Recover the amino acids of this structure.
């Protein structure tokens, strides 16, 4: 391409085929060299720049938008630079988020999805993808232990939205008048979730006009699991206060500790008090794919609804989140508004496949194809092998941490998911006795190391405080490229960056 070639030369320009092919092959070339770098341990995870540097422009990479078109040559440079200054989330040493890795089949699925560029709201314009969503939901229902005929669901834009769906349907089930009359028609309802649950339950309460104060944080044990006795005590307390307990969110794989709430006990309590039981298995749902570890979710089959994000443990490219509900027709009844321009009842096909009216969106991205394609390519057994390997890596890290003097586990006990939480205790801090002074200093260690880590770009891991625990590192495994040697690297890197 030269500086004389512009987008107008590409299809649909007359005779634009050859030019378009050449342009797209160049784009693929850029993407492929990025993919190779992603897997190359010698390359950095990131090349960090501050926001003002990006906004001001870097070495020929300007984000400014102009009135005049830019030549294709420049567009290709823009593509290259965008990746160059981004974060390689598929790098074997990227551990920052629950979703990591770069699955080549999933990537192909995403490319195909973008090429098809359609919308999930009607069968009319997305017949194959709607059928795939149906097949995937049935498969996931079967794996969770529900009979496929009673269940329903929808793929949504992430775990937070799937959890939002759970509150929407729970509320509608008990108080269908909410749809037309709004909150004034309802009593004071109360939701329950553990103190380690994801913040999206509170977010849902805020968005839905329930209010965050009306989400009760139920106490957890040392490992971050909800204590059933505490749940029941809180339900009784809410009742005594004249409130109406409505919904419990149990978590299967908490964000920080990777804890599994005791689902069967929680199901008993929900049954006793007639509460909606939702399981947020956004993170831990992947364990359902493995015969070795799926017992950790025993009781999930008794849930009314489930969030399960294949974009986490199953490695599907972002975004891919399933909201599953154990009652056919409820999603539709709750959300349906019958927009006449889109959901005409007199179409030539079975309009129950116009799934758009079950959702709170209008337009909906195709998130199912990449998951379907990966499932075809790996089979259920392929996911099982991958996920079992993540658990083995977590166990390896746990043992390494126990064996090393400079590290301390936040809680002891073999990992149940791939989360391993730990402090790095620099030699200077080890000389100070445990107590408020040491805690205060320890609180600053992880952020300091993380800042150096970002500047050097060699690896990336997250940190946070939790309850009364000062800042600690949270390691997770969900990247098929990661090996034990990367764990050794991370620990050595933390020690190097954490030098006093
Ligand atoms: N939605 C939870 C994601 C949190 C994380 O990746 O750390």
């Amino acid at each position: 391409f030269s500086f004389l070639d512009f987008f107008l030369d590409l299809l649909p320009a007359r005779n634009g085929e050859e030019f378009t092919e050449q342009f797209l092959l160049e784009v693929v070339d850029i993407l492929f060299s990025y993919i190779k770098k992603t897997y190359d341990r010698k390359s950095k995870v990131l090349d960090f720049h501050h926001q003002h540097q990006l906004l001001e422009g870097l070495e020929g990479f300007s984000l400014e938008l102009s009135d005049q078109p830019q030549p294709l040559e420049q567009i290709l440079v823009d593509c290259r630079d965008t990746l160059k200054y981004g974060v390689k989330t598929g790098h074997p040493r990227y551990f920052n988020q629950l979703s990591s890795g770069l699955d080549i089949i999933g990537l192909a699925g995403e490319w195909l999805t973008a090429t098809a560029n359609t919308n999930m709201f009607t069968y009319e314009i997305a017949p194959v993808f709607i059928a795939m969503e149906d097949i995937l939901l049935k498969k996931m229902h079967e794996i969770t232990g529900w009979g496929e005929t009673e269940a329903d669901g929808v793929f949504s834009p992430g775990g937070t939205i799937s959890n939002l769906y759970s509150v929407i349907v729970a509320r509608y089930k008990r108080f269908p008048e909410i749809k037309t009359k709004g909150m004034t028609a309802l009593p004071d309802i109360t939701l329950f979730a553990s103190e380690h649950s994801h913040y999206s339950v509170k977010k849902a309460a805020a968005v839905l006009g329930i209010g965050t104060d009306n989400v009760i944080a139920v106490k957890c044990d040392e490992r971050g699991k909800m204590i059933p006795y505490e749940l029941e005590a809180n339900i009784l307390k809410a009742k005594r206060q004249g409130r109406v307990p409505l919904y419990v969110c149990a978590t299967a794989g908490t964000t920080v500790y990777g804890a599994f709430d005791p689902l069967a006990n929680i199901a008993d309590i929900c049954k006793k008090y007639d509460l909606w039981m939702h399981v947020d298995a956004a993170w831990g749902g992947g364990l359902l794919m493995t015969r070795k570890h799926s017992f950790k979710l025993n009781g999930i089959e008794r849930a009314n609804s489930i969030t399960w994000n294949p974009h986490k443990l199953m490695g599907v490219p972002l975004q891919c989140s399933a909201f599953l509900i154990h009652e056919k027709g409820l999603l539709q009844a709750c959300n349906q508004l019958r927009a006449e321009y889109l959901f005409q009842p007199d179409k030539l096909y079975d309009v129950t496949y116009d799934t758009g009216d079950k959702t709170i969106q209008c337009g909906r991205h195709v998130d199912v194809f990449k998951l379907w394609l990966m499932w075809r390519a790996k089979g259920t057994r392929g996911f099982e092998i991958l996920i079992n390997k993540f658990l083995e890596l977590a166990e390896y890290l746990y043992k390494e941490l126990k064996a090393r003097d400079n590290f301390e586990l936040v809680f002891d006990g073999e990992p149940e998911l791939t989360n391993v939480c730990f402090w790095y205790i620099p030699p200077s801090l080890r000389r100070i006795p445990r107590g408020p002074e040491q805690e205060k200093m320890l609180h600053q260690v992880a952020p300091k190391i993380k800042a150096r880590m970002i500047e050097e770009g060699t690896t990336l891991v997250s940190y946070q405080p939790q309850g009364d625990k000062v800042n600690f590192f949270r390691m997770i495994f969900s990247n098929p490229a990661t090996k034990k040697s990367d764990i050794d690297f991370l620990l050595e890197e933390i020690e190097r960056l954490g030098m006093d």
